[in-house]
Amino acid sequence: MAQYRASESKREQFRRYLEKSGVLDTLTSGKWTPPPPFSLVTLTIMHSVKQSFNLFLLISVLPLFLAVLVALYEEPEKPNNALDFIKLHLGAAGPEPADTEALRTELADLQQKCSELMEENKELRSRLMQYEPSPDGEAAE
Known about the structure:
The chain is mainly α. The protein contains six helices and no strands.
């Protein structure tokens, strides 16, 4: 009986943890959307047939979600942000590294420079063709 009460206390602590971290509010308010690959399929089914959507959710998403909740429940050190833990384990994109924006900017700059160099190369080739004969022996005009 004491083991049952300890278990119940642990469940109650976990429920309060989910409540404080905003997981319960997010799920019950309808703000939560399933992560890819479920999003497109979920939206398609939801718009077509409400019953099918409920069945799909019950069969495919719910067991996965429950498995993630069990993993969170069994975590010895509970993460500060339970929603991020759930999103990460459901396959949603995790937090981006701090240097992502710098890398995106660098990529855009390098793509622009590459484009400029390709244009310069094209121009130089056309100028070179004026002074060198073409491969078949005729002089270019």
